[in-house]
């Protein structure tokens, strides 16, 4: 996702850093529930028929490996999985994939392993699993081992590196919507530095972090877990990863939930337009809620409120706001600080507090939200998600639009998003500076896979409802679950209808008979 497409656009953004921290902190449905034991037979373990059969003889050592699990605090178990860096040369360099497992509460009636991925691309799946008590409701935690992994090139799994921390600070602070020649040149310079930096600082690894390769790693993980089929819960970009797995290994698909689905057939431009419209809908919903509550600090109408936010961004572009730290709040930081809380309705009050403070001339709160979005802590970045998202997406789709053609896109993007449209238009620069070797494109229909649950939310800012509709239609066995609501993703978001459908499906193999509306 390339620039803004690298950080807020195309393929579903940062469910990882923001949503592992924000989205997961819902207040609904966190209490233990009394439910019957699942009807599905308990997991059969490492001797499951054909579980470790390798698709190619040269891969047999990887498929027959045993993960050495050990305690790593808070009751978690951690381990490592070895995979070939290049599946075309399995005897060459190897990568180490970090794993974290949360054991099922009821081991006697354990169903099996539920492999999970929070999206990004670039978000560490081990962190997602570590927060299973927040991310997944009690019925799933009782009967499934929740297994998270950091996909290759992310987290602790041989992370790709493209910029130093100080460079990354400057990159994220720069104007995502350049409106004068100097800003435009800076924008293009960063595109080149990012692309060249990945190759320089990461070497050949930067050519081997594609979604297809990560999906192949998941099949090695399935075998190492002793599962003949993969049970999987993927959110946001994790839906693309899951759909890719279903295309590559349809006969190995067990029960698969794709929540906050990505349209895997859409072009970069179509995805950018979709997200521009999604974030416009989200910011309008936020302002409308403020106005309807009475005495809204942004104005008396939605249009007044949006105009004030746009003016605030323009003012910050001209003159960054001071913070209590050693960084000023720039327009780039302010933009990320505004979009981060739009992922979850329960975080709208945080956005209000941050905007109020910014309108008073202080940037601390928006900077904190921006830092949370990009995984920046007090002492630097806590993961490489802001770099991994670029490398992964550019391997998957290296397309870009020349800078001199971006103004021609303004009309289309302004139409779907008067507030943020031009940020997303400039995101079309995409992989302008990328120097890696792109992966072969993959057409996905998952032919031959077991039923796959695809969830979309009507006012999801990052993965619009239309994407879920399209993916469910693309997948031969896709079943659409529609959630009417705000925020990113649908499971464990306060909608009991969605939760029951997901849990009945994963635990008891109850497949909805046609589309479900919740």
Can you characterise this structure?
Strand 6, helix 10 (237-248) and strand 7 (253-259) form a beta-alpha-beta unit. Helix 12 runs antiparallel to helix 13 (331-339). This protein folds into two domains: 3-160 and 206-266 and 440-517, Rossmann fold, CATH 3.40.50; 165-203 and 271-429, no CATH class. The strands form two sheets. Strands 1-2-3-5-4-6-7-10-11-12 form a ten-stranded mixed beta sheet, with helices on both faces. Strands 8-9 form a two-stranded antiparallel sheet. The two termini are 31 Å apart. The chain has 20 helices and twelve strands. By secondary structure, it is α/β, with parallel strands linked by helices. The chain has helices at residues 3-7, 15-21, 60-63, 125-130, 132-135, 138-143, 165-173, 181-202, 211-224, 237-248, 268-292, 302-318, 331-339, 348-359, 364-373, 385-396, 410-416, 421-426, 465-474, 496-508; strands at residues 70-71, 77-84, 94-102, 112-117, 144-149, 230-235, 253-259, 376-377, 380-381, 452-459, 478-486, 516-517. Mean pLDDT is 89; it is low at 1-34.
């Amino acid at each position: 996702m390339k620039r803004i497409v690298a950080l807020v656009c195309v393929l579903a953004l940062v469910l990882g850093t923001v949503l592992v921290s924000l989205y997961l902190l819902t207040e609904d449905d966190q209490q233990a529930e009394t439910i019957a034991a699942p009807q599905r037979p308990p997991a059969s373990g490492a001797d499951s028929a054909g579980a470790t059969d390798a698709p190619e003889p040269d891969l047999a050592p990887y498929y027959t490996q045993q993960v050495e699990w050990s305690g790593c605090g808070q009751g978690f178990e951690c381990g490592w999985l070895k995979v070939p860096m290049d599946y075309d040369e399995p005897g060459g360099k190897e990568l180490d994939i970090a794993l974290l497992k949360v054991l099922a509460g009821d081991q006697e009636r354990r169903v099996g392993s539920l492999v999970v991925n929070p999206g990004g691309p670039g978000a560490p799946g081990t962190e997602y699993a570590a927060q299973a008590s927040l991310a997944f409701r009690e019925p799933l935690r009782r009967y499934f081992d929740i297994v998270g992994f950091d996909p290759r090139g992310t987290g602790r799994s041989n992370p790709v590196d493209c910029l130093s921390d100080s460079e990354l600070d400057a990159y994220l602070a720069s104007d995502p919507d350049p409106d004068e020649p100097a800003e435009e040149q800076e924008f293009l310079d960063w595109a080149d530095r990012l692309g060249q930096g990945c190759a320089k600082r990461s070497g050949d690894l930067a050519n081997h972090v594609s979604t297809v390769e990560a999906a192949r790693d998941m099949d090695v993980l399935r075998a190492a877990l002793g599962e003949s089929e993969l049970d999987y819960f993927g959110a946001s970009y994790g839906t693309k990863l899951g759909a890719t797995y279903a295309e590559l290994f349809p006969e190995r698909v067990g029960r698969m939930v794709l929540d906050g689905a990505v349209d895997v057939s859409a072009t970069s431009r179509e995805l950018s337009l979709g997200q521009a419209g999604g974030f416009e809908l989200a910011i309008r919903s936020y302002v409308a809620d403020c106005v309807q509550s009475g005495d809204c600090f942004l104005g008396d109408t939605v249009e007044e409120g949006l105009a004030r936010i746009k003016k605030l961004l323009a003012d910050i572009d001209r003159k960054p706001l001071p913070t209590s730290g050693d960084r000023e709040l720039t327009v780039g930081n302010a933009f990320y600080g505004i979009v981060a809380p739009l992922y979850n309705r329960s975080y709208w009050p945080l956005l209000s507090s941050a905007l109020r403070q910014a309108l008073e001339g202080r940037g601390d709160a928006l900077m904190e939200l921006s830092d949370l979005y990009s995984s920046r802590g007090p002492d630097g970045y806590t993961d490489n998600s802001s770099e991994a998202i670029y490398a992964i997406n550019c391997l998957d789709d290296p397309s870009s639009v020349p800078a001199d053609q971006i103004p021609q896109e303004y009309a289309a993007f302004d139409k779907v998003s008067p507030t943020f449209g031009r940020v997303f238009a400039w995101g079309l620069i995409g992989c302008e500076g990328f120097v890696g070797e792109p992966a072969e494109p993959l057409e996905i229909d998952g032919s031959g896979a077991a039923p796959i649950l695809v969830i979309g939310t009507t006012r999801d800012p990052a993965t619009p409802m239309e994407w879920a509709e399209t993916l469910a239609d693309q997948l031969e066995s896709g079943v659409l679950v529609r959630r009417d609501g705000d925020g990113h993703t649908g499971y464990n978001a306060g909608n009991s209808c969605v939760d029951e459908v997901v849990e009945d499906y994963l635990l008891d193999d109850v497949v909805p008979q046609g589309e479900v509306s919740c």
